[in-house]
Amino acid sequence: MQKLTIIARNFCLKGEIKEIKPFGGGLINSTYQIITDSNKYLFQKINHAIFTNIAELTTNIERITKHIRAKFENAGVKDISRKTLTIIYTKDQKGFYKDEKGNSWRVFDFIENSKTYDKIVTPEQAVATGVAFAEFQKTLSDLDNPPLYEVLEDFHNTAMHIDTFLETLEKDAVGRRVGVEEEVSFLLKRKEEMRKIVEQGEKGELPLRTVHQDAKLNNILFDKNTNEILCVIDLDTTMPGYVCYDFGDAIRTGACTANEDEKDLTKVDFDFDIFKNFAEGYVTRAKKILTKNELESLAFGAKLLAYEQAVRFLNDYLQGDTYYKTEYSEHNLVRTRTQIKLLMKMEEKYNQMQTYIEGLLKSSSFLNWYYARTSENTL
Ligand code: GN1
Ligand code: MG
Q1: Which domains does the chain have, with CATH numbers?
Q2: If you placed Cys at 172, which of 129, 177, 291, 329 could pair as Cys (CB 3.0 to 4.6 Å)?
Q3: Average pLDDT of 348-362?
């Protein structure tokens, strides 16, 4: 508390600091809440082993929040402070503070009366989540050049994650491979199929856009009382990528019936109703900016993100848990198994997922408009 308070005093906070306590549960950064006698703030230590260029990261977040804020201002929206994050600067006007140990810290205004969910609980919430990520992508689709910094290079480059995984398997540095052959063979069987999006991107068949890239359900703030969506948070990985990454991650986290580290695999299932509601919200709002190939990549994105996450968790397990925070030695393996089970359930429903999205595209007024333009490959 003493050390945290000393660090927090470098920021332009209103009021005297009363308390600083842990808040939320990301797997990379450490998050706290600061309570002063007149305000609340979100306070984060940025994991600089992963985010090595904090200045670029901060510039990205400044640009994203400024762009979103300007759009809401132009649209005459009230209470914009709840519609995107507000950066609190240091007393010397910097967006982050570097302590003597080399750790970087940042502060955001705390958005009051808000909550996050780890699981989607109602159909309305599923639609709203789809709308939230579609709107996020749409809002940022006209961000001025240059593109945002690629703060984590190849972040969702599944082909690269597969190659790293193959090297890790070869080295078996901490001797854990012996217990995970079943998981390894499940993942390796799908490795060619899962290179698809990256390959399509390289061929120019999918456009790079500004996308969130950590589009987990719990990165959306809802109003505590009305359940209305307030904003999308955790903007660290918002940078150039493909839209199916966000669609896929939101489904991976929102349409899974269990937590990411559920040990009882009988509880892990893919909730197809949530998928349908989410897809409807997303496609209805995003369709105007998406190309035909992008629309066709969405259902695959759900499988892709579950697969990639399984590879990333297992890779970390086999490397001795150096990337994700873990609470016990098998934690990353438990997480891997959950993703594998989810992927199996998604595979059973994959044709139905695709048919459902095609159905959405064919429905109502969207139909004529869609077919009139498919030849241009642009919607
Ligand atoms: C990490 O720390 P958090 O929860 O925001 C990770 C995501 C993973 C997620 C898995 C920078 O996000 O890619 O999907 O854990 N972020 C980074 O829960 O690697
Ligand atoms: Mg994150």
Answers
A1: 2-111 (3.30.200.20), 123-371 (3.90.1200.10)
A2: 177
A3: 93
